[in-house]
Write a structure and sequence with these properties.
The chain is an all-alpha fold and about 90 residues long. The chain is about 65% helix and about 0% strand. The protein is elongated, with a radius of gyration of 16 Å.
Amino acid sequence: MAPAIGDRADPYRFVQAVLAGYDVMTRFGEALSGPELLHRGFWPTFLLAPVTAAAVSARLLGLDVERMAHALAIALTMSTSRPGGSVSGGVT
């Protein structure tokens, strides 16, 4: 069930959402070997930013597990590991 309007301004709820985002980001970064990716020219920050934002937002909105999974999946499709998004066909 989604939180009431007044609950959204709760600082404790906000901190919990941010901590959930950091948890998701840290776990994904570790699973992907973030430091190794960085040395190979990929930016883990660009890759994980959409997922982290989705986790924070889903927690703030009080989404259930299924909807949270959908939000994270959508965010993963928006992820890129290079500045400027994906490029096809070369640079002009």
